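Dear support,

I submitted the protein below through the web form. The confirmation email said the job was done, but the results page showed an empty box. After a refresh the structure appeared. I'm attaching both so you can tell me whether what I see now is the final result or a partial one.
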Amino acid sequence: MKVLLRSVRLIHKSSPFHQKEVDILIEEGIIKKLVASGDVLDLKPGTQEIDAQGKLVSVGWFDMQASFSDPGEEHKEDIQSGTAAAMAGGFTEVALLPNTQPVIQTKSEIRYLKEVTGKPVKIHPIAAVTRDTKGEELTEMIDLHYAGAVAFSDGLNALWHTQVMLKALQYMQKMDSLLINRPEDMHLNKYGDMHEGLQSTILGMKGMPVLAETLAIERDLRLLEYVAEMSVGASPRLHFSNISSQDSVRLIREAKQKGLAVSCDVAAHQLYFTDEALADFDTNLRVNPPLRTEADRQALIEGVKDGTIDVIVSSHQPHDEESKKCEFEMAAFGMTGLQTVLPILNHVFSQDMLQDSLLEKITAAPRALLRSDQPAIEEGAKANITLFDLDTRWKLNGSSNKSKSKNSPFWDKELKGKVWGTFYQDLYWTDL
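What the results page shows now:
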């Protein structure tokens, strides 16, 4: 391919062109020229010119947590539709959870995901920690690591067994890989529908207490500290996924201050909604961890700003209509999220912050945690670029939605901030 992006404003702190209008010439997947706007004059035959004046360009975005339901539940999502949704959301790389049918727990299943081609999106498989993500017996983690698993997690299921969790942390030391755990005491949350508090009482629904999350975090931090004290080399690295409460932010902040090798992420929707949004029983808002209070939401936002929260994820969980068009307590947990990350961040944070430190939460930070190559926008580098703007208004509907599923609380609502294209090596997509 030969593509010239004209008159884009570059958001890339390490570049001398940061916050300047530039032309970017990409040939066969390589950035051949990066110059001030208007300086590219002589183009080779067949070069496609894209007038992107007024648009922003950054390093391609990386989603550290999504589900594509493939293999096993392709009626909800498959690799093709999932990567299409990722592209439309601005993501050039996506780490997929192992909760498929079968579970991602063998070398052949890792290979199946790594061999996805034909889309400007790179798939990074996360392998299961335990067989069938049941939390009881460890998988062949070392083999999976060398087969290409970028991290280990039981995904949507918590690592509930303390001895298994301890052994998993010890294995991490040998591989310098990342152990990702969803902090949840499943017994405390059993049969729960939403955050336990005033709103659950008013609505008459079974609550899911903050304690179910913080107890799990406290246990895992104690185990991490124990393994670190007993180890000769580097400490294992532990990552908490989808934290949702102010108490969780505090615990992780304190652990970081103590020097523990801990990190965490938050789902974009947790920064936008609170449990008050459940007043009309929209099943698309039935998520786990649940939407919590305004105080929790503000604490999560502050955690993003001060660096306690390392990464923002889409937590993309597609579901068919049968899983959501039912009584609230019967509905499946989760919402689609890949295409709404930018509008959410654009709504919650200032545009100045979004163009500065916030972008690192969906670019550099997830790659650093997963030991993935950090792309650059410079001459000679492989193309890995997201093109977007912060002012265009659009709606998520049957025309714009790229997922097979439409379980989004933003359906048919006006959103601000749009992705216009993604470029990954010699493949690209653009809506211009």
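Response: this is the final, complete result; the empty box was a page-load delay. The two ends are 17 Å apart (CA to CA).
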